[in-house]
């Protein structure tokens, strides 16, 4: 059997070995039930405790204020592209005086492939999507975040402002929280950098993250939503013209009112996520400690790339992602050899996304400093061989 590898995958990504081993020990007999966690009822006391502990640990890790709900939803990050539009249009609709024309803009920052996809979905569902910035359109490619003077925000009229904190494919991460009209809910896709650094939850209306990078296995999506944005979906009869009606399974209030147990949740994914939260709290020492380690990891990687004659970063320094470092090798024909050599040394999933090409190092929370050192050593040797 193959020994465990150094996994630099962008997602599904590496999980902490401690977590996998604990799950293995508990696999056949969870909490002395004589069953695996996949075989118990989601309405059992055992699962209720698991769910509530998991929620509480996440609340502690991110210091989620009391006026927010933590939801465990399904359908991955992509389902939230639609859920956001539905839920927040319902909210805005219910704030509007009767009879007034309803067509608030939805503001989107497009800084990479994932926010572009989210904006496309919004345009499918609704006819007033406002692009605040589209970096590819203005600069020819993703890899920067233009200054505030270039943003075209709609102000207080908007139903929400949307951005993706870390663009997994393009390696672009916001070094700040965008400053917007405080009356407008700020919505953020944190699928690939949640729990990697401290941030102020109270600045946001909705935060969501698919699990399969920094949280756990694919299957569960974490949604953190402010209480005032929980509204019951109206049905089609009292719908304003052209405004979508929220499907029950995408409605945040339904999930909040039912403690994420409206239907059967992805129990195994939630269970493993809970183990990851325990690991972060007890082994790492919380998000602040994790942030320090992550900083060391990406600093090592970018320092090497910047000093190198053959590695070339694709992203402006101030907005380089701490989680995903895409780069090219000059000449590009060396990239194949680089990947094959890495593979031989048990370093896997380093190939860049097909839309960007080249190499991508993903260094999520579970990727250790030791793994990064091992990779950096290889990169140095590879460069020596080719210069
Ligand atoms: N947003 C970001 C930032 C992502 O990286 C991804 C997936 N890699 C998604 C959304 C889509 O997530 P999913 O595949 O869970 O739908």
TrEMBL record:
One GO MF term attached to the UniProt entry: pyridoxal phosphate binding
Domain of life of the source: Eukaryota
Pathway connected to this protein: Amino-acid biosynthesis; L-serine biosynthesis; L-serine from 3-phospho-D-glycerate: step 2/3
PANTHER family on file: PHOSPHOSERINE AMINOTRANSFERASE
Family from the record: Belongs to the class-V pyridoxal-phosphate-dependent aminotransferase family. SerC subfamily.
InterPro entries: Aminotrans_V_dom, Aminotrans_V_PyrdxlP_BS, Pser_aminoTfrase, PyrdxlP-dep_Trfase, PyrdxlP-dep_Trfase_major, PyrdxlP-dep_Trfase_small
Entry EC no(s): 2.6.1.52
Domain Aminotransferase class V positions: 5-374
Cofactors demanded by this protein: pyridoxal 5'-phosphate
Coiled coil regions in record: none
Catalytic reactions of this protein: O-phospho-L-serine + 2-oxoglutarate = 3-phosphooxypyruvate + L-glutamate; 4-(phosphooxy)-L-threonine + 2-oxoglutarate = (R)-3-hydroxy-2-oxo-4-phosphooxybutanoate + L-glutamate
Entry keywords, A to Z: Amino-acid biosynthesis, Aminotransferase, Pyridoxal phosphate, Serine biosynthesis, Transferase
Cellular component GO terms held in the UniProt record: cytoplasm
Enzyme class: transferase
Protein source organism: Glomus cerebriforme
Gene Ontology BP, a term: L-serine biosynthetic process
Protein's UniProt name: Phosphoserine aminotransferase
């Amino acid at each position: 059997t193959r020994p465990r590898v150094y996994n630099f995958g962008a997602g599904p990504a590496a999980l902490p070995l401690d977590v996998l081993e604990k799950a293995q020990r508990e696999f056949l007999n969870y909490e002395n039930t004589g069953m695996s966690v996949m075989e118990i009822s989601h309405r059992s006391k055992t699962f209720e405790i698991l769910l509530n502990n998991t929620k509480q640990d996440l609340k502690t890790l991110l210091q989620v204020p009391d006026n927010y709900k933590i939801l465990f939803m399904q359908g991955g990050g992509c389902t939230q592209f639609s859920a956001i539009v539905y839920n927040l249009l319902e909210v805005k609709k219910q704030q509007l005086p009767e009879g007034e024309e309803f067509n608030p803009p939805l503001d989107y920052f497009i800084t990479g492939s994932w926010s572009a996809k989210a904006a496309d979905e919004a345009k499918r569902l609704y006819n007033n999507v406002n692009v605040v910035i589209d970096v590819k359109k203005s600069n020819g490619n993703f890899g920067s975040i233009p200054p505030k003077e270039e943003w075209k925000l709609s102000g207080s009229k908007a139903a929400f402002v949307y951005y993706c904190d870390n663009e997994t494919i393009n390696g672009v991460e916001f070094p700040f929280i965008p400053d917007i009209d405080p009356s407008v809910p700020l919505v953020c896709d944190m699928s690939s950098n949640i729990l990697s650094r401290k941030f102020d939850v109270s600045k946001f209306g909705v935060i969501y993250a698919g699990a399969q990078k920094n949280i756990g296995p694919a299957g569960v999506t974490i949604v953190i939503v402010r209480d005032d944005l929980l509204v019951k979906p109206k049905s089609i009869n009292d719908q304003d013209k052209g405004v979508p009606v929220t499907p029950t399974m995408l409605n945040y209030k339904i999930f909040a009112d039912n403690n994420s147990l409206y239907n059967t949740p992805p129990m195994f994914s939630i269970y493993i996520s809970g183990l990851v939260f325990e690991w972060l709290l007890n082994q790492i020492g919380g998000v602040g400690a994790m942030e320090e380690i992550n900083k060391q990891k990406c600093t090592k990687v970018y320092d090497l790339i910047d000093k190198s004659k053959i590695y070339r970063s694709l992203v402006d320094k101030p907005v380089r992602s701490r989680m995903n470092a895409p780069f090219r090798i000059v000449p590009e024909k060396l990239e194949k050899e680089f990947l094959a050599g890495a593979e031989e040394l048990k370093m896997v999933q380093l190939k860049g996304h097909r839309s960007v090409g080249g190499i991508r190092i993903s260094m999520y929370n579970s990727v250790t400093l030791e793994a990064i050192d091992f990779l950096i050593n290889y990169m140095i040797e590879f460069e020596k061989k080719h210069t």
